[in-house]
């Protein structure tokens, strides 16, 4: 990322319109999240972070935590910045938060998203199952993946 340094910071309500733009770019066939959906996630107290490059939001990620487990709700990086390690930074931030609580982490990922699947496998996730027609309205399947608690 030669244009500057990527910083990870808590996602803010001011970031929501840009999140919606990224959603529409990345997930046009699968009911992209609305402003209300993002605001609801932020208001619920879930752990959300944004990746900023030169002050511009280029990605975001969210994690829900309970006493017993964590669930990755989303990770997204705009197309222009994919393949540069931004997703890895976002994922590692979520995993660090889960590790602070010593809980396993679960997620769903489209079965045709090979780069994301490779990223998750490289970070200790395993395939747990298959959810047929999980993503709507496209009907795309999803793998359920999990990573054991890291209690170090």
UniProtKB/TrEMBL annotation:
Domain of life of the organism encoding this protein: Bacteria
Transmembrane segment boundaries: none
Reactions catalysed according to its record: N-terminal L-alanyl-[ribosomal protein bS18] + acetyl-CoA = N-terminal N(alpha)-acetyl-L-alanyl-[ribosomal protein bS18] + CoA + H(+)
GO molecular function terms attached to this record: protein-N-terminal-alanine acetyltransferase activity
Known EC number: 2.3.1.266
Pfam families named in the record: Acetyltransf_1
Gene Ontology CC terms, in alphabetical order: cytoplasm
N-acetyltransferase domain residues: 6-150
Keywords for this protein: Cytoplasm
SUPFAM superfamilies in the cross-refs: Acyl-CoA N-acyltransferases (Nat)
Localization in the cell: Cytoplasm
Function: Acetylates the N-terminal alanine of ribosomal protein bS18.
Family: Belongs to the acetyltransferase family. RimI subfamily.
Descriptive protein name: [Ribosomal protein bS18]-alanine N-acetyltransferase
Origin species: Saccharothrix coeruleofusca
Phylogenetic classification of the source organism: Bacteria, Bacillati, Actinomycetota, Actinomycetes, Pseudonocardiales
Gene: rimI
């Amino acid at each position: 990322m030669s244009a500057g340094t990527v910083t990870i910071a808590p996602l803010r309500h001011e970031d929501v319109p840009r999140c919606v733009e990224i959603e529409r770019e990345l997930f046009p066939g699968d009911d992209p999240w609305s402003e209300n959906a993002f605001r609801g996630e932020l208001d619920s107290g879930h752990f959300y972070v944004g990746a900023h490059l030169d002050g511009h939001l280029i990605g975001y990620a969210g994690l829900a935590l309970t006493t017993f487990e964590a669930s990755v709700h989303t990770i997204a990086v705009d197309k222009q910045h994919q393949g540069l390690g931004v997703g890895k930074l976002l994922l590692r931030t979520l995993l660090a938060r889960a590790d602070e609580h010593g809980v396993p982490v679960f997620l769903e990922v489209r079965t045709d998203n090979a780069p994301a699947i490779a990223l998750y496998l490289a970070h200790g996730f395993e395939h747990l199952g298959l959810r047929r027609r999980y993503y709507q309205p496209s009907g795309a399947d999803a793998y359920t993946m999990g990573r054991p608690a890291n209690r170090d």
